[in-house]
Write a structure and sequence with these properties.
Length: about 300
């Protein structure tokens, strides 16, 4: 769905090069400590992670994971100046360059060629989270090497946001960035935040007005709709009609993301939500309600899948 507010936005075929180090840190701002260390993935001989997508799909390259791996290794390089970490980060960026494909709206995208059964989404599909995190890695790869292909692909990836092909609307009409395209929209919280960080990085690194406007719209959409993710005792993973609760790991991600958005915007709505969700995390009552809620959720989803199977 193309956001009306962005219909007039257009992007040039070549990215601006006015300022390549205008406040963009080599180290990605999200802290994965205690959440992700990439120890559960297989790696290719070239040092790229493979994700297990089930018995039918097996081990696959997954754009989100490759982008995150590159950003994770760049964080390590920023701290240690270990050349191996930089090499692995650039290998991830090179994979993104080599595997970007033309997508609707004139952009470049990392196209998934398998269906999303949970959301009922057929192949092919594109993820706003993959697009945003890829932009964040490609810009940092350019920061370290100066290679133009990184900027060109990042510019093409931005076009998928400008055209609205990875966007939808929240119930109030504000902009939502979709990790997973679905009908009705899934509105995955962590994916929307990670996607928005790519817009922020592009705006900062290249002084790009289109990216800045999209970032502001995305942040506005998040701020206006955070209450929808709050159950009163925990956070929701998404707003899809099955009403899934976030796992403890994703609840922690939500908490950290709220703190990061506050750092970037100084908007107290984010830090206030962060403090509220921290209280849930530390509350025995909330943990017990989460256990009960997850148990009921698994029962509901099991019955849903059983019913679907009988209809096939």
């Amino acid at each position: 769905m193309s956001p009306d507010a962005n219909k007039s936005l257009k992007i040039s075929s070549q990215p601006s090069v006015r300022s390549h180090n205008a406040g963009l840190s080599l180290s990605y701002p999200f802290d994965w400590t205690g959440i992700e260390d990439f120890s559960e993935y297989r790696f290719t001989e070239n040092g790229l992670p493979l994700v297990y997508l089930g018995k039918h799909l097996g081990w696959r390259f997954y754009p989100i994971t490759i982008a995150q791996w590159g950003l994770y290794r760049l964080q390590h390089y920023a701290r240690s100046r270990e050349e191996r970490a930089l090499h692995e980060a650039l290998s991830a960026a090179d994979w993104l360059v080599a595997n970007a494909e033309p997508w609707e709206g004139g952009g470049l995208a990392w196209v998934h060629d398998w269906p999303l059964e949970f959301y009922g989404t057929p192949a092919p599909w594109v993820s706003a989270m993959a697009q945003g995190e890829a932009i964040s890695l490609l810009l940092r790869a350019h920061l370290t090497t100066g290679r133009d292909e990184y900027l060109k692909v990042a510019s093409g990836a931005l076009q998928t946001f400008v055209s609205g092909s990875v966007c939808s609307r929240y119930p109030d009409g504000s902009l939502s960035l979709e990790e997973y395209p679905a009908d009705p929209p899934a509105h995955v919280l962590n994916g929307a935040v990670f996607a928005s960080l790519g817009l922020f990085d592009y705006a900062v690194y290249l002084h790009d007005g289109e990216a800045l406007r999209l970032w502001e719209l995305a942040v506005q959409g998040l701020r206006r709709n955070l209450h929808l993710y709050d159950t009163g005792f925990w956070t929701r993973y998404d707003l899809f009609p099955v009403h899934r609760l976030a796992s403890p790991a994703y609840h922690e991600i939500h908490i950290r993301q709220m703190g990061l958005l506050y750092e970037l915007t100084s908007d107290r709505a984010f830090v206030e939500r962060q403090r509220k969700w921290l209280k849930y995390q530390r509350s025995l009552r909330s943990k017990l309600l989460w256990i009960a809620g997850k148990s009921f959720e698994k029962l509901r989803l099991g019955l849903r899948d059983l019913f679907r199977g009988k209809l096939r």
